Description:
Elements lengths: L4 E4 L6 E12 L2 E9 L6 E2 L6 E6 L5 E3 L2 E5 L10 E7 L4 E5 L4 E3 L7 E6 L5
Antiparallel strand pairs: 1-2, 1-5, 2-3, 3-4, 5-6, 7-8, 7-11, 8-9, 9-10
Amino acid sequence: MKLKFxxxxxxxxxxxxxxxxxxxxxxxxxxxxxxxxxxxCYGVAVDPKTVSIxxxxxxxxxxxxxxxxxxxxxxxxxxxxxxxxxxxDPFIGATIFIDDEYEDSxxxxxxxxxxxxxxxxxx
Length: 123
């Protein structure tokens, strides 16, 4: 499985999708501390605070990234309509979702979750 990342472009604020690079150098000059590299393209400088890793897909097949806000529209909690933030914990290797009172492992998001925003977009 190829790792996928996204981050917000420092110049435009748009999401950039692709590989991940630290200390991106182009033409012998450092252009970014952190960059996302779209397929067959030079690295694009992104805000390091917005870099997110893909951890699965939602019920519509859309890539699900850490920092995404998902809506329970399926079987989890009986389709409660609750929103959860997706997080990735590199120490235990588990993806989790969190709201103010609940934390659990993220299981089968393709069966119940719909992406409705990102914490980096102010959602």
